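Working notes for the structural subgroup meeting. M.R. asked for a predicted model of this chain before we commit to crystallization trials. I am recording the input and output together here so anyone reviewing the notebook later can reproduce the run.

Input as submitted:
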Amino acid sequence: MTRKSANFWFRLNRTLHRDIGYLCIGLTLVFAVSGIALNHIADWNPNYIIERVEKPFKAKNTLSDEQLNEQLSTLFEFNEAIKASYWESVQQYKLFFAEGGTLTANFSRQTAVYERVTERAVFKQFNTLHLNEAKKGWVVFSDIYAGMLIFLALSALFMVKGKYSPWRLKRGWLVIVGGLIPTVYIFYV
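Returned structure, recorded in token form:
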């Protein structure tokens, strides 16, 4: 290979690495943010905000539905429209609100519990992509993105010439350690 063709390939590699790298920045941030969120799923729900409020509620289960609805709405200071209500059992009455919340009155425990589940904006959508719940076209796109990351990793090995090259012993160990970390973790942890 002549020096001129070697320089051509070196410049082409740098240009492709730079441009593909810019393209991957946004994608990498989406996958990184959702990855962190999904790694801590035991600590919080990254897809939904679950609001739960429990209050003491002393009432008789002999009241009419309208009276119960009024007492429960007053207890929780709601102005939401009631969508539906029903008796789950003799000791448990449930209200459904038009905007999605539920309220359960338990007469044996003398408590009322309000619950509302709302989607976390952005996180839920990021996690849907990260977990490939979108399917179809996203599989193809994810494979292309993975290919671009492989290209970035391999092309990075040829970005720098001379004493700062990863082929030199000073920096080559970083490449080796980067590969050993997941390997050691898988087999020894």
